[in-house]
Amino acid sequence: MKFAFLPSPWKESADHLRAAGHEMVDLSENPELLIFRGGPSDFPAELPDSVKVVQIGYAGVEQLLEAGILARHAERGVRFANAAGIYDDTVAEATLALLLAVLHRHKAVSREWNQEQLFGETEYLFDAKKLAIIGAGGIGKKLIEFAAPFGVEITAVNRSGRHVSGAERTVAMGDVEAMEVVWSESDCVVLLAPLTPETRHLVDATVLAKMRNNAVIVNVGRGALIDTKALTTALQDGAIAGAGLDVTDPEPLPADHPLWEMDNVVITPHTANIPRFMARRVGALAARNWELFAAGESMSTEVDVEAGY
Amino acid sequence: MKFAFLPSPWKESADHLRAAGHEMVDLSENPELLIFRGGPSDFPAELPDSVKVVQIGYAGVEQLLEAGILARHAERGVRFANAAGIYDDTVAEATLALLLAVLHRHKAVSREWNQEQLFGETEYLFDAKKLAIIGAGGIGKKLIEFAAPFGVEITAVNRSGRHVSGAERTVAMGDVEAMEVVWSESDCVVLLAPLTPETRHLVDATVLAKMRNNAVIVNVGRGALIDTKALTTALQDGAIAGAGLDVTDPEPLPADHPLWEMDNVVITPHTANIPRFMARRVGALAARNWELFAAGESMSTEVDVEAGY
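Above: the input entities. Below: the structure tokens describing the complete assembly.
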């Protein structure tokens, strides 16, 4: 199989595919597979008819979708796969790190050795915490594994409500009554959902008002899952206890944004997943997906262009 | 049984003992048990002969030992128990939190959204890390549980070399050859050992020079397990990659100490264990130890005054 890799190849991925007998070529040399890891403006205006499959190098395809790129090519029979699942462990670990940093009040430590303050404010995950995982797919399952030894009570929230293994219960995101309980009873809320019209501002002023005063929220999904203004107000007012944010809205978060100042907000610059792990793994994923495509099957991470993820 | 609680009682502990039928009295009213949670200067100059057992409210008794308090009373038949084990989970969780915060470079995040820097510098615990736990007792075992889902290869180090369950291998601290391998091959080194003449400055310039450049060290044992000056130099020189410190030497760490400035050093002010968990649990421990003592048995956390822990 011939593949192109745009805007520029990840060496580790390309090496993996070449070792599996595939050939890297330019887009003009009739590749059958395109691996694409750029943004909408990097996407080629035209794809040669030879391209049957586009393997995206990341999981969240909403920008390509909004730019109309997926629909335009899908119409002509091109199939798309994203990279969901190949960084479950990186993101789940980054999530736990943020959650613990917020609970343990790392940012509140001062050079004045403010032990008494931390004695009062430190919370422990193991201490009978109720954890809700909103958007519990592959990353959520990995997070459930990481959190299991802490004995937390986990509520998984997904679209279908289909039971997620390891969770105490699974709630469908559309189940308004059950979601009331999730918002009002959770000590920790982790957002892992993709950004869709339904999930935009999922956590807004109304939801924040329902949450416990001791609740902490961790967002490693997409910034716009949260209404940033409402979150800032809730944190300022003590309506919730803290936040860990790997994604923000806007992103990057402006250097003068009040969230940077808060000692109960731990921020990382969208680094829960990092390219060197993606590079290491996308080659293997593309090879597997190509095999499935060639066998006439649905690819392991095939994008449902109509559903938008 | 009558017990006194000095310098002042923890309400939750006292309530627990009273609920079990015991009576809280002043030291002058001939208590049989003294629960003590202060420092050497708080310890009563004289104990009434009625006191058979002193239950210490924390684990590290080296200060009482150095002040000669344990020996003086042990000589007269008083037995001492410490509070080892009742905060395995708090300390193990705090250890994991520090370790992840260092690996994930939380302190290096800047308002300039330095994503590229973090892409390069973030490390993951799950990523084939070798973790050494120096002083692997109860806390170490809990840490092994917490770390298990990350698939790390764990080397436990203890005095006896007796196998620690869940560890890939256990090394005796006195095994010079095996310790060479521990220092030179571990990616993460966690110090949980008590402070004794043997463990003071266990991590000094010589040991730091053996460690990998990517190694991170987390100290939640006692500050003086590390030669602070040597650690500071090693971090400045890039001889090791980072440190998480819940304990320091001197402690508190002076506000102008260079360690505070380093973005690869995460410090908490000796708050891995916090009083409200100790208070919740020391009552039950004292009751259990009193029962064992009354039955003529060795107490569950009895201090070996000669050994010093």
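Note for the figure: Chain B is about 35% helix and 15% strand.
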